[in-house]
Fold each of these.
Amino acid sequence: FETLALSGRTVFITAGPTREALDPVRYISNHSSGKMGYALAEAARDAGARVKLITGPVSIAAPERVECIRVESAQQMLDASLTGLSGCDLFIAAAAVADYRPVSIAEHKIKKGSEEIMELHLVKNPDIVATVAAAEDRPYTVGFAAETRDVVSYAQNKLARKKLDLIVANDVSAPGIGFNSDENAVTLVGPDSIETLPQTHKQQLARQLINRIARHFNEYAKT
Ligand code: C5P
């Protein structure tokens, strides 16, 4: 039978937004749809991998034959990412993790006061993909970078700073692609490679990306 590019490999993928609770009924979040991460999970599964999809709250259905771990906060996404990490060969961080969370979660619903201005105190969330990349016996680690300018140079900086193996960079200032849209166009940036994948549907792009990522990963796994 045909050997697929990721046969016998375990792939963890983070997807969707995180929700950072303020009180029992409110949260801070973003408009990430999860489409790119879910499409990558299906493409990795179709390439023969065992896939664990760690997902924030999204409205799309869980892919078949993929282990789906549902989380809300960045901290929960980190915990789920570190669980079983020693068995993970390839980690792809496609989630739009909230950079900050409220310093504390109020036990009861926060009441409206008489003051016009209300201050929220936020604290930085852990960087999930950088934590994974710094782990002992780390998987091959792939991050995403959404930029509005100088896409490649910011991606190269991010690659070095977070100690990643590859970055999928997209220009979110371009209309009709990226965040919450059905299409995307990306540049795959490695330590000594730059490859542009032109605009297409996220499903199609995910298959192309998994092919390229698997090629880089298999090169790395050989050494
Ligand atoms: O630093 P920035 O948010 O631009 O980095 C984006 C990449 O880092 C994405 O792969 C995203 O999933 C990941 N990330 C993460 N944890 C965070 C912030 C970003 O895993 N707290």
Amino acid sequence: ARKNARRTITIFTSDMEEASRQRAAIAIDLRGAVQNGELELFFQPQNDARTRSLCGFEALVRWRHPQHGLISPVDFIPVAEETGQILEIGRWVLETACTTAAGWPERFKVAVNVSAFQLAQDTLPLQVATALSKSGLKPERLEIEITESGVITDQEHALKIVLALKELGVSVAMDDFGTGYSSLSTLQSFPFDKIKIDREFVKSLTVSPQSAAIVRSTILLGASLGIPVLAEGVETEEQLGFLQLEGCKSVQGYLFGEPLPERRAAKMIEAALES
Ligand code: C2E
Ligand code: CA
Ligand code: CA
Ligand code: CA
């Protein structure tokens, strides 16, 4: 038993070491990633819940590592936040998303994720303004998605940044609604233009009365505040049916499409225009 216990501890320690080694390796490899053109943007459709028509796309970043292939943002965005590399990556994401969207017909919008570290700086409004002017994209076609974790550390500063963004004419969405510690007070303090209900609640919508109640209440809350609600992670017709019935404004999820490379997003736009 003793031997086993020791072995467990050894494995645990080496796993932690392995994890931190991996993070360090990622940070080093990430250094040249932007300049070497290793980042790619994928685009996931966002659709009107009632009519099902295409409204726009959320831009989601991936890293094509020369040895390891396509790496998920879940694995490198947290590292980039720790090292500050997120600033350079964030600028690249903004400029690439705006340039791509500028090539789409005017009625399609693009949503871009911004992380806590980016919001904590003063540079974001200028980065956004630069991305808009370089690409020629109209500000009302750009939406910035921020999570609660991005605004709670220094609320006052985050609010200043959000107001400056809105001054530019872009809209601001609250991402992952319901997963933080103070979703309601964040909603009270920030002038959001959209609420995105987290996938966690949508996932169990049709099997859990609790999830159904939370989703229903969030849609109602949005209606009372005059803020449209988007449901994330919609995978089934049954989920869509519930959301339509409750008056959810828009939807995003595998039912309408996974995140697509730029060319496949363009094809989806063509198909939407023909129908
Ligand atoms: P998120 O903003 O909540 O993005 C939605 C995630 O859910 C995406 O994962 C998407 O592929 C996935 N998803 C969408 N629909 C479905 C569905 O129907 N079912 C399931 N099971 N999953 C679905 P992804 O692309 O791996 O992104 C993960 C997270 O990484 C994002 O979560 C976002 O927080 C972050 N991220 C992505 N791109 C960027 C970026 O450019 N900048 C920053 N700061 N963060 C980013
Ligand atoms: Ca998002
Ligand atoms: Ca989200
Ligand atoms: Ca989420």
